[in-house]
Design a protein that fits this description.
This protein is α+β, with helices and mostly antiparallel strands and about 250 residues long. The protein folds into three domains: about 70 residues, Arc Repressor Mutant, subunit A (Orthogonal Bundle), CATH 1.10.10.200; about 80 residues, 2-Layer Sandwich (Alpha-Beta Plaits); about 70 residues, Alpha-Beta Plaits (2-Layer Sandwich). Helices cover about 45% and strands about 25% of the residues. It is built from nine helices and ten strands. The chain has a four-stranded antiparallel sheet with strand order 3-1-2-9. Strands 5-6-4-7 form a four-stranded antiparallel sheet. A two-stranded parallel sheet has the order 8-10.
């Protein structure tokens, strides 16, 4: 598992334990609203909404809260209108950084992102400068208690592209459109799914060590904590020993 994937996995699990519930809910609800506005409120006809609906349920967002978010997205209920904005830049050591936001004020969020990059020793870049270094993929996590051969067979038959294992469990990679079907196949087989979401996977990585590694991790954490940020991606590869010792 690459350094960034390991960081994202650790953040996900840590967030499920100690991140303020209201802040997590707000991010998930925004994702549901935007998916409904862009593709309609029918989860059966809108694959993105279906994924975001399940992600919100995985985050313990109540059904009625999700349904209200869908209605705000489709215009049945009034609400703040969010738009999706992606910011690109570079961090310490020259790593590429891609930040996906949902905001009701593009100018404010842009200024704040620029400040976060600068304070962290990085810099913002023009649109397209680093995006070409990433591919949109589905990412599924399952526990390490599953037999690897059985999991590989099930995932492959359902359309998965790759399977990796570390001490914490398995990471399955899919094409974006296959995320829901692979998850459903695993759950039908009785396999517990820790998380399933769309993400951006780097096509190549940059190894970062020592002080640059700590600076990169601090930058990622600072950006990730911003209220408008839905996800932050990078192409760094940091040794697991450094990640394990990092306490934020």
């Amino acid at each position: 598992m690459s350094g960034h994937s390991k960081w994202a996995t650790t953040k996900h699990r840590k967030g499920a334990q100690d991140k303020a519930r209201a802040k997590l809910f707000a991010k998930l609800i925004r994702q549901v609203e935007v998916a409904a506005r862009e593709g309609g409120g029918d989860v059966n006809a809108n694959a993105t909404l279906r994924t975001m609906f399940q992600k919100a349920r995985d985050g313990s967002v109540p059904i009625d809260t999700i349904e209200r978010a869908i209605k705000r997205g489709t215009g049945e209920l009034e609400g703040v209108r969010y738009e999706a904005v992606t910011y690109e830049g570079y961090g310490p050591g020259g790593v590429a950084v891609l930040v996906e936001c949902l905001t009701d004020n593009r100018n404010r969020t842009g200024a704040e992102m620029r400040s976060l990059f600068t304070r962290s020793g990085g810099s913002m870049a023009e649109p397209g400068a680093v995006a070409w270094q990433f591919e949109r993929k589905g990412a599924i996590e399952v526990p390490a208690t599953i037999d690897e051969d059985r999991l590989m067979e099930l995932a492959s038959d359902a359309g998965a592209e790759d399977l990796e294992r570390d001490d914490d469990g398995f990471s399955i990679t899919t094409a974006p459109g296959d995320l829901a079907s692979v998850r459903e196949a695993l759950e039908r087989a009785g396999i517990s799914v820790r998380s399933a979401e769309l993400t951006m996977v780097p096509t190549s990585t940059i190894e970062i060590v020592d002080d640059d590694a700590k600076r990169v991790l601090r930058m990622m954490d600072a950006i990730d904590e911003h209220d408008d940020v839905q996800s932050v991606h990078s192409n760094f590869d940091i040794p697991e020993s450094v990640l394990a010792a990092y306490d934020g």
